[in-house]
Amino acid sequence: MYLSRFLSIHALWVTVSSVMQPYPLVWGHYDLCKTQIYTEEGKVWDYMACQPESTDMTKYLKVKLDPPDITCGDPPETFCAMGNPYMCNNECDASTPELAHPPELMFDFEGRHPSTFWQSATWKEYPKPLQVNITLSWSKTIELTDNIVITFESGRPDQMILEKSLDYGRTWQPYQYYATDCLDAFHMDPKSVKDLSQHTVLEIICTEEYSTGYTTNSKIIHFEIKDRFAFFAGPRLRNMASLYGQLDTTKKLRDFFTVTDLRIRLLRPAVGEIFVDELHLARYFYAISDIKVRGRCKCNLHATVCVYDNSKLTCECEHNTTGPDCGKCKKNYQGRPWSPGSYLPIPKGTANTCIPSISSIGNPPKFNRIWPNISSLEVSNPKQANVCDNELLHCQNGGTCHNNVRCLCPAAYTGILCEKLRCEEAGSCGSDSGQGAPPHGSPALLLLTTLLGTASPLVF
Ligand SMILES: *[C@@H]1O[C@H](CO)[C@@H](O)[C@H](O)[C@H]1NC(C)=O
Ligand SMILES: *[C@@H]1O[C@H](CO)[C@@H](O)[C@H](O)[C@H]1NC(C)=O
Ligand SMILES: *[C@@H]1O[C@H](CO)[C@@H](O)[C@H](O)[C@H]1NC(C)=O
């Protein structure tokens, strides 16, 4: 995997149909930018919001360490076995492949035993802090779709900060603090993501969950993307529709999951005891065997293909947009201001295509979006049309999925997924919530009602 970066081979990922993925976190359905439909005027293109598939982003990053000479083995040195200060004859030697621990071993294939890992020099200069920055750069905006997972080979650090940049490394913001003692290390009260809510989901927290250090068997640190998604999509992320809708209407939320770079700041290695054992400083170092980052190129819902060419990721823009993120209209297509595609209405969204500049053509063409009738959808694109009973979307409140394309709702309900009360739409529900009151408890359902209905969006 790591090698392919250096060979600079042309990698490309694309989905052409709504094939269901084995893991739960597919944002699904926005996998076609256009489709041919039949109307009274014959075959025409229908344009839709679209995005690349979520993928393993560690294949496309560049890694940089600070200080640059912090990797162990140059000159060769010995270190103590994990948790055993009396076995200090392990060797790190950068010039011997079997004894070297270069940074690329954080991104190679795991599953081999023993696992391969990057390792820092030991804390010989104690009490000067042993600090390392590991910076991962994509030179492209990407949207995270799954937890960031860092697996340590050493004890998990006593203090660490995960940072992100949204402007290619010019400015950095903390993403999450990790410490055995948050108050002591960062003057922050310890919190876990589970303590957050829809309204506080953007809060930057310090967690003690992953720093119990030297003695525990667990070696993993998470940055919890899925738990944050779950505030909108429900505990098993079944209601992705409501997450899409919220992302659509809340730029801050969208930006929270968007990065161009990540930085792992290792501030203090696992010590485990109150005092550092100065006689055995070769016990203390950092070692990481794996880093997982899943996400997708941010293409503003104007592309399904992201090309990796010449060590660079670029969206292959549709809808007459252009730029690395499809962030502007093509020349001669500036008939109205550029705008990102929209996830709404669910499930196909709105393409917000760029339209020809008035000056570049004789007559302004018709730009009305053509809404296909249901039967033409069924005829032209049966795969695309499975919109009401799949991994992500389900008819609600007892609705049944008719021909895979629409929910047939019980009399009291309406909406694409029967998520809305008919009387709510008509504004005639009243307050006599006695008989006929809906099972209205689920927050995700309430939120969906909010999105598709009339109530105001969440404020952060
Ligand atoms: C790591 O990066 C931070 C900024 O994000 C900087 O202040 C710090 O000095 C860097 N540390 C090292 C060891 O380079
Ligand atoms: C974009 O422009 C091309 C001509 O250059 C046209 O054929 C195509 O239909 C346009 N697409 C959209 C989405 O407007
Ligand atoms: C829907 O589209 C099909 C196929 O083009 C057409 O035969 C049918 O008459 C259309 N129905 C309506 C209600 O427009």
UniProtKB/TrEMBL annotation:
<keyword id="KW-0677">Repeat</keyword>
<feature type="domain" description="EGF-like">
    <location>
        <begin position="384"/>
        <end position="419"/>
    </location>
</feature>
<feature type="domain" description="Laminin N-terminal">
    <location>
        <begin position="46"/>
        <end position="296"/>
    </location>
</feature>
<keyword id="KW-0424">Laminin EGF-like domain</keyword>
<dbReference type="InterPro" id="IPR050440">
    <property type="entry name" value="Laminin/Netrin_ECM"/>
</dbReference>
<protein>
    <recommendedName>
        <fullName>Netrin G1</fullName>
    </recommendedName>
</protein>
<dbReference type="InterPro" id="IPR002049">
    <property type="entry name" value="LE_dom"/>
</dbReference>
<dbReference type="InterPro" id="IPR008211">
    <property type="entry name" value="Laminin_N"/>
</dbReference>
<keyword id="KW-1015">Disulfide bond</keyword>
<keyword id="KW-0732">Signal</keyword>
<dbReference type="GO" id="GO:0009887">
    <property type="term" value="P:animal organ morphogenesis"/>
</dbReference>
<keyword id="KW-0325">Glycoprotein</keyword>
<feature type="signal peptide">
    <location>
        <begin position="1"/>
        <end position="28"/>
    </location>
</feature>
<keyword id="KW-0245">EGF-like domain</keyword>
<dbReference type="Pfam" id="PF00055">
    <property type="entry name" value="Laminin_N"/>
</dbReference>
<dbReference type="InterPro" id="IPR000742">
    <property type="entry name" value="EGF"/>
</dbReference>
<dbReference type="GO" id="GO:0009888">
    <property type="term" value="P:tissue development"/>
</dbReference>
<dbReference type="Pfam" id="PF24973">
    <property type="entry name" value="EGF_LMN_ATRN"/>
</dbReference>
<dbReference type="InterPro" id="IPR056863">
    <property type="entry name" value="LMN_ATRN_NET-like_EGF"/>
</dbReference>
<feature type="disulfide bond">
    <location>
        <begin position="409"/>
        <end position="418"/>
    </location>
</feature>
<dbReference type="GO" id="GO:0007409">
    <property type="term" value="P:axonogenesis"/>
</dbReference>
